[in-house]
Write a structure and sequence with these properties.
eight-stranded mixed beta sheet; binds uridine-5'-diphosphate; 10 helices; alpha/beta; binds magnesium ion
Length: 310
Amino acid sequence: MKITFSIIVPIFNEKDNLPELYRRVQEVMDKTHKPWELILIDDGSSDGSSDMIRDLAKKDKRVRPVIFARNFGHQVAVTAGLDYSRGEAVVIIDADLQDPPELILEMAQKWQDGYEVVYAVRAEREGESWFKLWTASLFYRMIYRITDVKIPLDTGDFRLMDRKVVDVMNKMRERHRFLRGMSAWVGFKQIGVEYKRAARIAGETKYPFRKMLRLAINAVTGFSYFPLQVATFFGFASAGLAIIAIPVVAILRLAGTHFFEGQTTTLIFVLFLGGVQLISLGILGEYIGRLYDEAKGRPLYIVREAPEDQ
Ligand code: UDP
Ligand code: MG
């Protein structure tokens, strides 16, 4: 039977959310009267989510479990979901029900109208700290300005993609992944639908500041050379300053003034330039490290248990 909808859910220690997730997804998807599958990717959970996923799959054949050998991170878990999906339209959604499954119906409508990517825009967010809201907002705006791809603002990974788009994305095997950037990069007919992002129904966020920062760096390095250009800019700016400063200092000294004498000015400039150079090296390092990771060509993820019907 041809599958119309694939629902992809990455799961990392979400045992308190799983039953409700399954119930709501099933309720919504049955309303479409089309064949669907629910792909649950267990991203190295240690709280018993894996067994729950296995049980769900035993009870309902539409549930297809992909169990990872360890934690590979959210973006990679979703990637595995895309690889295993067979639907004509593929929906990515979080396990904590912050993204309401009911919105899938609205997305499916837009898809039927001919849109190939329907992304969900967070018009409002509930139950998140001001720090998370502020950093998230800053993150979206920074990415928008810096990167070469126009990634829609306030948009997470919650989206529906046509099979054509998924097939292209599945060919992009970069390892430091920023899926919403990749899905904007491919083009096609795209549209947003607004929704209110609810609070998590249970459990804690699996995206602490450290992981958000990683994702932001992946987004910037994956889609632009901006940081490298900043290094070049600082290089030119300080070289320019030196060219102007040399004759100025020479003239001042010849005129008998005591400007620029002593260790302090020298020390400040050496420290400043040293800092700029080290930061530039660090930026170079980020890109080189990524090159190295790509060159190793390791698999993106390791699957311990794949769906039986694979
Ligand atoms: N997640 C995952 N692997 C990870 C971290 C998170 O599969 O290493 C899943 C998590 O179970 C959830 C989704 O990614 O389904 C989004 O995570 P979370 O809700 O913690 O992020 P937030 O909404 O706080 O940004
Ligand atoms: Mg969440």
